[in-house]
């Protein structure tokens, strides 16, 4: 961050410099989550569509973790604890969308992709807290209710 630039760059890495301060893929995923979660099929036209699908699934997972959290502090802890979990990449057990992304061609490429997914999940989780909880720190029932939805008919495991 250059002198005089008041932007808050709390994340570093490959995603940090590509975040548009106006609207980006994370904002889009959160904004359209409640509509997109009802779809079972998507017309994929670009890699942004693939990332939007991944983020919609991640938001569904995060909301499932927030479901029992009655305060913003509890929700923040749940999201933070979700972050360090193993983040599988295409070709690994647990990656939710086999065939959606190309398989990494090397261990280095897999680690780069894993780090990108960790970072974008962290950013998404932080922004999701801003809509899933009201300014007074209580849950927004209109958001938390979507934890019960299955995205693309995928069952999100309980904690």
TrEMBL record:
This is Actin-related protein 2/3 complex subunit 3. It holds the Pfam family P21-Arc. One of its GO terms (cellular component) is Arp2/3 protein complex. Belongs to the ARPC3 family. GO terms for biological process: Arp2/3 complex-mediated actin nucleation; regulation of actin filament polymerization. Its main location: cytoplasm. It is found in: Cytoplasm, Cytoskeleton. SUPFAM superfamilies: Arp2/3 complex 21 kDa subunit ARPC3 (SSF69060). One of its GO terms (molecular function) is actin binding. InterPro entries: ARPC3 (IPR007204), ARPC3_sf (IPR036753). Keywords: Actin-binding, Cytoplasm, Cytoskeleton. It comes from Papaver somniferum (Opium poppy).
